[in-house]
């Protein structure tokens, strides 16, 4: 549970100390990193099985 506490602390406390453009930029970067992690996770979890064929290869 400690890692979740650290993550929440960095988002709510540490970023709360920033002002103006630095705060906006940090939230944009945090969002981009979150999207990137989601895409990598999606590629790792939802891999097609080795026997599956692609629709592009059929046509």
UniProtKB/TrEMBL annotation:
Ordered alphabetically, the record's keywords are:
Membrane, Transmembrane, Transmembrane helix
Q: What is this protein called?
A: Uncharacterized protein
TM annotation in the entry: 21-41
State the species of origin: Rhodoblastus sphagnicola
């Amino acid at each position: 549970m400690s890692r979740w506490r650290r993550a929440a602390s960095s988002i709510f406390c540490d970023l709360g100390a920033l002002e103006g453009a630095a705060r906006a930029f940090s939230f944009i970067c945090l969002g981009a990193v979150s999207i990137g992690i989601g895409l990598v996770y999606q590629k790792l979890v939802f891999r097609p099985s080795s026997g599956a064929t692609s629709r592009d290869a059929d046509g």
